[in-house]
């Protein structure tokens, strides 16, 4: 890679070229894809944090609110944990804060005193209804320049990678 090509390339291309120089015998092809997936995820998360900042909730808190907003019924804390991929301890901490600021209600299950049912309050639902469209707009900005067919093809390929990750 010439100096001009190196300067004009994206971060992942430069990263792969650096590894090729440092360890020329290794096949770094996967960096082209997995590296980009990871970098896009990080950039998307940062963008989402900026979108959500004015609302006063973190991305993880918003994930909890969205899990509840999608559900047709109150959810057990462990169901929220499964949907958000947070740890049980994180779910407990986040839901305590969300309850304290009036965005969710938490009720102990009568049959099992350790179990908790979580539900959005009207304020929580309102926050999701306001912020979720803003989050979708940010996602759409990441996809600018891709046709509908290209987006569908990318979704199909990424679904296959996601399935591999879930099996791993």
TrEMBL record:
Span of domain HTH marR-type: 30-163
Q: Please identify the protein, giving its name as recorded.
A: MarR family winged helix-turn-helix transcriptional regulator
**One Pfam family, short name:** MarR_2
Tell me the superkingdom of the source: Bacteria
Q: Which PROSITE patterns match?
A: HTH_MARR_2
> Matching InterPro entries, A to Z?
HTH_MarR-typ, MarR/SlyA-like, WH-like_DNA-bd_sf, WH_DNA-bd_sf
